[in-house]
Specification:
Elements: H1 2-17, E1 29-31, E2 34-36, E3 41-43, E4 46-53, E5 56-63, H2 67-85, H3 93-100, E6 102-104, H4 107-122, H5 132-138, H6 150-157, E7 166-167, E8 173-175, H7 189-203, E9 208-213, E10 216-220, E11 229-234, E12 242-248, E13 252-257, E14 262-265, E15 268-271, E16 286-293, H8 296-309, H9 311-320, E17 326-331, E18 336-339, E19 346-347, E20 352-355
Parallel strand pairs: 18-20
Antiparallel strand pairs: 1-4, 2-3, 4-5, 5-9, 6-8, 7-8, 9-10, 10-13, 11-12, 12-19, 13-16, 14-15, 16-17, 17-18
Helix pairs in contact: 2-7, 4-8, 7-8, 8-9
Bound molecules: adenosine-5'-diphosphate and magnesium ion (MG).
Length: 357
């Protein structure tokens, strides 16, 4: 089910976001066009690649003389990070750490743990990478879904507290405070990956590019004609529909919702974003949260966090950090809350309340 939904959303987003280019591409392509202007010649050679990694469909697109090199390097980087960070791959750095409880981390994993622990503090525990034992109890990693008993959740919740992790930023040594603790960077890894790709683009002199990692988008610069990228924000009810269109430049646009990965049992739906305070899928009145920020890692971490917080706390959090991000939140009653920093960049036919500082 996940597969079908993701495909639908990628196709939709690709066609909407890349409205400047010919069509949705299934394979690597490179097209060359040169636009002569009076002062300079702008090459808009395009390279684009569809990749399946991190359990999702991704599209990487770059424009410029080194577009093909940039896209090839981006693909390698996605695969490298997937191998490093995946909890499902027994050989990954994170899986090994989860088996032993201590390690000296690589630069990438170290950076992510540092950011994740920071977020854990700032979000008052909503973002908690130590959630993995609970993810396992619900069967999300293996897709052998089940509803755990209250007792199981109670005992596992003693293990899920990221503030018990000891991490030294200089030596990158990490150790868990308790036997049985395990971490999961799934709430932050894709945003980090898209931000890494932005760096790869820049190193290859790309000034216009876009990545779509399973509906999570990050844009470099503008489209080649100088207009902003148009990003469709997915609808949680019907992934073939969208909540609205956001115009962005140099921003990540990352959405979390209970509709992305879930299972049903006895008529109830259980999704993959867990409230660390209860051990159950977060049900705090929001159905979707989109974060818009220059920092892809932050955007990913916060999309998960604000979804867990619910509208009131999320708005409070935004007011304290409005220089770092903006957000679009959809409540169960169908109202969209859009923070004022992006009020003019978001077009929608739904009811909108602009949130002011
Ligand atoms: P997606 O990865 O589907 O785009 P998210 O960014 O919201 O969605 O990440 C959800 C993932 O984050 C889960 O699959 C799980 O790996 C992890 N996760 C779940 N609950 C939490 C939490 N409270 N704190 C941090 N990570 C979480
Ligand atoms: Mg996230």
């Amino acid at each position: 089910m996940k597969l079908k939904m993701v495909l639908a959303c990628v196709c939709l987003s690709t066609s909407l976001m890349l409205s400047g280019c010919s069509n949705t591409k299934q394979t690597t392509t490179a097209e060359t066009k040169s636009v002569q202007t009076e002062e300079k010649s702008v090459s808009d050679e395009e390279a684009s690649k569809d990749i399946f990694a991190m359990d999702t469909y991704m599209t990487v697109t770059a424009y410029g003389d080194q577009a093909q090199e940039a896209v090839d390097e981006a693909e390698k980087e996605i695969q490298r990070l997937d191998e490093l960070l995946s909890t499902g791959n027994e050989e990954s750095e994170i899986a090994k750490l989860n088996q032993t409880g201590s390690a000296t981390l690589s630069e990438d994993a170290g950076y992510l743990v540092e950011r994740a622990l920071e977020l854990n503090k700032e979000t008052d525990g909503a973002f908690d990478i130590a959630i993995y034992p609970i993810m396992e109890a619900w069967g999300f990693p293996t897709q052998n879904y089940q509803v755990p008993t209250e007792d199981t959740l109670k005992s596992l919740m003693q293990l899920t507290d990221a503030s018990k992790i000891t991490y030294n930023e200089d030596s990158r040594k990490i150790s868990f405070g308790q036997e049985g603790m395990k971490i999961d960077l799934g709430g932050i890894a894709k945003g980090y990956t898209s931000s890494r790709i932005m760096n790869i683009f820049k190193e290859n002199n790309i000034s216009s590019g876009l990545v779509n990692l399973g509906g999570n988008v990050q844009a470099l610069g503008t489209k080649t004609d100088g207009s902003k990228w148009r990003v469709a924000v997915q609808s949680p009810d019907d992934t073939e529909d969208y909540l609205g269109i956001l115009s962005v430049q140099d921003k990540a646009v990352i959405t979390s919702g209970g509709y992305e990965r879930y299972f049903e049992q006895d008529g109830k739906t259980y999704h993959h974003i867990i409230d660390p305070k209860t051990g159950y899928p977060a049900e705090n009145g929001l159905t979707s949260v989109t974060i818009v920020s220059e920092d892809g890692t932050l955007a990913d971490g916060l999309s998960t966090s604000l979804f867990i917080m619910g509208k009131e706390k999320a708005i409070e959090f935004w007011k304290a950090h409005s220089d770092e991000f903006d957000t679009i939140m959809l409540t169960k009653d169908g109202t969209l809350y859009v923070t004022e920093g992006i009020g003019d960049d978001f077009s929608t036919e739904l009811n909108v309340e602009i949130v002011k500082r």
